Amino acid sequence: MSKRKSNIEVSVIGNVDKALRQLKKKIEREGVVRDMKRTVYFESATQKRRKRLVRAIKMNMMRIINQGFFKPKKK
After folding, report:
1. Cα–Cα distance between 18 and 25 in angstroms, integer?
2. Phi-psi region for residue 31, left (φ > 0), alpha (ψ -120 to 50) or beta?
3. pLDDT, tens digit only, all 75 positions of the chain
4. Which terminal CB of the chain, N or C, has fewer other CB atoms within 10 Å?
C-alpha cells in the first residue's frame, strides 16, 4: 500500500464542465480513488492476489483483442 501524494492540476478556461471531466480522467489514471478505497477497506492477502490476477487477465485480453489476434463473437 503506497502512501504517495497526488498533485493533479487542471486549468479552467471558460468551461467548468470540461475542466471537471479532465480532472476526473486524471484522477482515474493516477489511481487516486483506488488507493483511497484500499486504505479505507481491509483486504486480505488472498483478495489482493485475486484482484491483481483478474486485472492481469483483463489487460491481457484487451491487448490480444487490440492486436487483432482474437475477434470477439457478435450476437
Report:
1. 11
2. left
3. 455 666 777 778 888 888 888 888 888 888 888 888 777 778 889 998 999 999 999 999 999 888 887 766 776
4. C
* Closest to 7 measured CA to CA, from 47, 23, 61, 15: 23
43: three-class secondary structure by DSSP: coil
Rounded Cα gap, residues 33 and 21, in angstroms: 15
Residue in the structure block whose three cell numbers are 490480444: 64
CA distances from 74 to 10, 15, 70, 71 (A): 40, 39, 12, 9
Q: Cell match 489476434: residue?
A: 69
Full-model pTM: 0.43
Q: How far apart are CA 7 and CA 27, in angstroms?
A: 10
